[in-house]
Specification:
The protein is 57% helix and 0% strand. It has 16 helices and no strands.
């Protein structure tokens, strides 16, 4: 489609509308390798010629590091070693992919690290996975595959929802360093930030839905597009309010250029919503209200004169938004041409009264799609660990009292195998009954001895 039109009153939307509708932000990903990779790595990657990194100790009294501890307790269990080796291979892959990205180090001021560090690595790993999914969505958007991009952004939203509503609240409920973590750790590990990011990615997913409709040939459903664009603006506004109210500490640390981008997106989506509304009203022969809607869209797309005024923020020469300047200019020219043509047609043919603004009964009603792709970590059986010398010649520890009794009912060939998983044990009524009997017997013996 071309941005030059002969008959503006009947012209289709220009390419600039599609590009402005699908403009999204790509986040850089922080490297995990030097954050806390050696906290539970059996095969550490944290030593290099260019990086100095002290071994994190489990506590300040015992000079035992997490790495030494896990190496010692896992060497008798081949499946545990295999799992840790796989995790380290993944870290090497991440390191190779992110060699040029800056990183932050957790717990800089401490000479030791407690179990909070393990949760930190888990949370940051999940957050990094969410950001990587969003970057795949950005790649799909650049390639013009808007449906795939929408799914990727919805997946990223689901991961941040899982962090903000499940993982992080459970961690904070059992944390002894809540205040310190809130003020000093990375934004991606805070509940408020993750809940806000959920709204940001849902807005981006909805942007891709709008772009999908605009990219199809023919006249789109402008009324639907207007409601979707208005919903995108509302979702972005919720992102800002959630961030500001639930994580004010990290809100104050955000790069001002990112906030400028969000402000730009909110206002351009407001303008696009009014533009689509005007196109819909004109097709429905409501010419006067259509002219009012396009007039408001034109005002919303102007550069604001004050920091708190209506309109778009000023695009500085060094701003990343400079890449959108040609599209914004074409969009403004298109609306001016369209408005002049409609006003001329209305004066000569239709004679509809033009209201000063869009009436309330014709105003847009935002639509939020809310199609989050839910995410949850797979539940795995715990990896076995043991002290040196306890089970050097066998894969598992000696059976417990309960396990010994339950194994009597099995074949001789099954002795010495791994104990049942947690889920299998909980679903086995005879196993639970045996556990209850043993606990009751131990309690009775304790009472008798007293």
């Amino acid at each position: 489609m071309s941005d030059n039109f002969i008959d503006a009153s009947s012209a289709s939307h220009p390419d600039s509308v599609l590009r402005l509708s699908s403009a999204v932000h790509r986040f850089a990903i922080v490297s995990l390798l030097f954050c806390c990779g050696c906290f539970f790595s059996a095969f550490p990657l944290t030593r290099s010629a260019t990086t100095s990194f002290h071994q994190p100790f489990i506590n300040p009294k015992d000079q035992i590091s997490f790495e030494t501890s896990f190496n010692t307790c896992s060497k008798s269990h081949s499946n545990t070693i295999a799992a840790m080796q796989q995790a380290d291979n993944r870290r090497r892959e991440i390191k190779a992919a992110m060699a040029s990205i800056e990183y932050n180090k957790y717990n800089k001021s401490k000479e030791f690290s407690d179990s909070e560090a393990l949760m930190f690595e888990l949370v940051l790993s999940i957050a990094t996975y969410a950001l990587s999914e969003s970057n795949i969505g950005c790649d799909s958007c650049v390639d013009g595959d808007f449906p795939k991009a929408s799914r990727q952004f919805a997946k990223a939203a689901g991961i941040f929802q899982y962090l903000g509503e499940d993982v992080l609240p459970n961690w904070m409920a059992n944390s002894a360093q809540h205040a310190e973590l809130e003020n000093e750790t990375l934004a991606e590990t805070r509940v408020g930030v993750c809940l806000a990011m959920q709204h940001l990615y849902m807005a981006m997913a909805q942007q891709m839905a709008v772009a999908t409709v605009l990219a199809k040939p023919g006249t789109p459903n402008y009324a639907l597009l207007g409601k979707l664009s208005s919903g995108i603006a509302a979702e972005l506004e919720t992102f800002v309010t959630t961030f500001r109210s639930k994580s004010p500490v990290h809100m104050s640390r955000i790069d001002p250029s990112f906030l400028t981008l969000i402000t730009f997106l909110i206002n351009i989506q407001h303008s696009l919503g009014l533009y689509f509304l005007g196109r819909s009203l004109w097709l429905n022969c409501e010419y006067g209200v259509a002219i009012a809607a396009i007039s408001e869209a034109t005002v919303a797309a102007r550069t604001r004169t004050t920091p708190t005024g209506r309109g778009l923020p000023e695009i500085e020469s060094t701003s990343p938004l400079q890449s959108l300047s040609p599209e914004l200019s074409n969009y403004r020219k298109h609306m001016v041409s369209l408005l002049q043509s409609w006003e001329k047609d209305n004066m000569l043919v239709y004679f509809n009264k033009v209201p000063p603004s869009v009436p309330a009964d014709k105003a847009l009603k935002p639509i939020r799609m809310h199609k989050i792709e839910e995410y949850c970590l797979d539940i795995k059986d715990p990896l076995p660990f043991s002290l040196p010398g306890v089970c050097d010649e066998q894969e598992v520890s000696s059976p417990t009292k309960v396990e010994s009794k339950t194994s009597e009912s099995t074949d001789e060939s099954s002795k010495g195998t791994n104990p049942p998983s947690y889920d299998d044990a909980m679903n086995n009524s005879s196993f639970q009954q045996q556990v209850d009997c043993d606990l009751a017997r131990e309690l009775q013996d304790k009472l008798n001895s007293e």
